């Protein structure tokens, strides 16, 4: 069978997925790497290790494809958004990748809000003004070390790093990853003049922006030798991991939303043209010229249950299969508690929060805690808090004129019936769970097939991707969540000053705000 490899370079691992024209996943390889937190607020990756992982993962699936008799006809790239890495003119990294979770630029986000420029930047670039974005990371570096900022030949992200590792040549990136930098004008189709001024960089220090379907050829000789692929294997430039998750779950038609719910989460819909929320709650990133993804990401997902397993159940660090088993046991306990957790609210901001607030320094809290509440209540309230946060994103869709009638969900958390039932009730929408957990990698395969002419219409991806029967919302739970969601909003707004002050006071070594 002819297959395409979707190469997905993420924050903790690079995964290579192979799929044929039928859209079915045939193989998967993963090469992991650690996230470095050398100081509070910092979150970095070893750039060379990430680049090497791309070659290693590709080599693994290419070898197994040959063993099966499959022919790799192309490779399509997916990359984590919002990373920033200094590079030389040949694409070699000159430092670590500063990831989306790095929070050192928080003060510059607040300054742009205070001086009134944040709204215009968001409206033109589609990226919320938040320390996750390369725009703010560069602005912080400009204030700290302007000589270094100017001296670095090239500034790029994960996509530019992987492209350089695989083929070298002039620095290029796709419109999708560019649209997530905070530096790229969506309507203008060029680097935004004001954003460049805020960041303190020249357009020439950034890559050339090409369509996500651009096909490049010419693997580096060492890469061709390591992978066993022909040197002229087509390399589809691809897109960012977030928008490809929509494609890989088949959520590309109107009114079908994708929810990713793993360690963190996101909710996204596809629209035919750039659409920016005037209230600045949602992002807008490119998939193709006719497919744009609007949505909101939340920092906290299944991580809230993992926290509960450590803090409320074991007291010790539990990893691997033992941790998964403990998570499952806590979720089973929580399922015995009625919806609403006996009038207990959780602000689930253990790792800070992004949508719809886009404010740094938020921290978690329980509101309404009573003596009668036990561990299962705390766990269920945390699950409900995450799902309610995603419902706030859905509410922002409605306010922006983007109706949603169905949700397709993927990620490790949706293996739990409690998570799926709570999500359906909080959103008050039917939820279908994807058959394959590798939505982003599969999305890269499908975009690759489209770019190479084997999938003429991307909208056909909806019929290629397998999903479960819908889980329908429980009407009583949905009504209760609709009643309590404004309380979560009010609590967050009322406590923001307290939480951000506490965050500023925290100098513990483990404090890693996102």
From TrEMBL:
Answer yes or no on keyword Kinase.
Answer: yes
Q: Name a GO molecular-function annotation.
A: phosphotransferase activity, alcohol group as acceptor
| InterPro entries reported in the protein's UniProt record | ATPase_NBD, Carb_kinase_FGGY, Carb_kinase_FGGY_CS, FGGY_C, FGGY_Carb_Kinase, FGGY_N
Record Pfam families:
FGGY_C, FGGY_N
Q: Which CDD domains match?
A: ASKHA_NBD_FGGY_GntK
Listed A to Z, the keywords are: Kinase, Transferase
Task: Outline the extent of the Carbohydrate kinase FGGY C-terminal domain.
Answer: 257-451
Q: Which residues form the Carbohydrate kinase FGGY N-terminal domain?
A: 4-248
- Where does the secretion signal sit in this chain? none
Whether Kinase counts among this entry's keywords is yes
Going by the entry's taxonomy, the superkingdom of the source organism is recorded as Bacteria
Which biological process, per GO, is one annotated for this protein?
A: carbohydrate metabolic process
Q: Which family does it belong to?
A: Belongs to the FGGY kinase family.
Q: What is this protein called?
A: Gluconokinase
């Amino acid at each position: 069978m002819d297959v395409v490899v979707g190469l997905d370079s993420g924050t903790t691992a690079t995964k290579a997925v192979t799929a044929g024209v039928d859209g079915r996943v045939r193989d998967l390889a993963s090469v992991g790497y650690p996230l470095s937190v050398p100081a509070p607020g910092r979150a970095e990756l070893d750039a060379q290790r990430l680049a090497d992982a791309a070659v290693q993962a590709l080599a693994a699936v290419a070898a197994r494809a040959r063993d099966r008799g499959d022919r790799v006809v192309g490779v399509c790239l997916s990359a984590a958004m919002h990373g920033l890495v200094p590079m030389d003119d040949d694409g070699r990294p000159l430092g670590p990748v500063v990831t989306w979770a790095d929070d050192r630029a928080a003060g510059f986000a607040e300054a742009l809000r205070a001086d009134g420029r944040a709204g215009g930047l968001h409206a033109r670039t589609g990226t919320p003004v938040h320390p996750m974005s390369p725009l703010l990371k560069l602005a912080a570096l400009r204030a700290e070390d302007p000589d270094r900022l100017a001296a670095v030949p090239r500034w790029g992200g994960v996509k530019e790093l992987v492209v350089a590792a695989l083929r070298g040549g002039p620095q290029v990136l796709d419109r999708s990853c560019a649209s997530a930098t905070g530096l790229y004008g969506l309507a203008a189709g060029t680097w935004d003049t004001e954003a460049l001024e805020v960041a303190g960089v020249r357009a020439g220090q950034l890559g050339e922006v090409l369509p996500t379907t651009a096909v490049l050829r010419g693997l580096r000789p060492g890469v061709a030798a390591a992978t066993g692929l022909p040197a002229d294997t087509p390399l589809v430039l691809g897109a960012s991991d977030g928008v490809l998750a929509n494609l890989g779950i088949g959520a590309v038609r109107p009114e079908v939303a994708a929810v990713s719910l793993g360690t963190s989460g996101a909710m996204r819909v596809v629209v035919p043209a750039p659409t920016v929320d005037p209230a600045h709650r949602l992002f807008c990133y490119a998939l193709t010229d006719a497919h744009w993804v609007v949505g909101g990401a939340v920092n906290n997902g299944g991580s809230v249950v993992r926290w509960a397993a450590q803090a409320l159940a074991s007291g010790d660090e539990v990893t691997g299969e033992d941790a998964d088993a403990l998570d499952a046991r806590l979720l089973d306990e929580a399922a015995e508690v009625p919806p609403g957790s006996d009038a207990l609210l959780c602000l689930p901001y253990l790792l800070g929060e992004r949508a719809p607030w886009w404010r740094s320094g938020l921290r978690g809290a329980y509101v309404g805690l009573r003596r009668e509440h036990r561990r299962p209540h705390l766990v269920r309230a945390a699950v409900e808090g995450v799902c309610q946060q995603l419902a706030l994103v859905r509410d922002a869709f409605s306010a922006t004129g983007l109706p949603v009638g169905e949700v397709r969900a993927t990620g490790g958390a949706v293996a739990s019936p409690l998570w799926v039932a709570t999500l359906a009730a909080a959103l008050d929408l039917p939820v279908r769970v994807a058959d394959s957990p590798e939505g982003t990698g599969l999305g890269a395969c499908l975009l690759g097939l489209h770019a190479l002419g084997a999938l003429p219409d991307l909208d056909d991806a909806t019929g290629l991707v397998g999903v479960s029967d819908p889980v329908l919302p429980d009407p009583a739970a949905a009504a209760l969540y609709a009643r309590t969601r404004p309380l979560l909003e009010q609590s967050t707004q009322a406590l923001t000053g307290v939480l951000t002050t506490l965050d500023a006071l925290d100098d513990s070594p483990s404090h890693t705000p996102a």
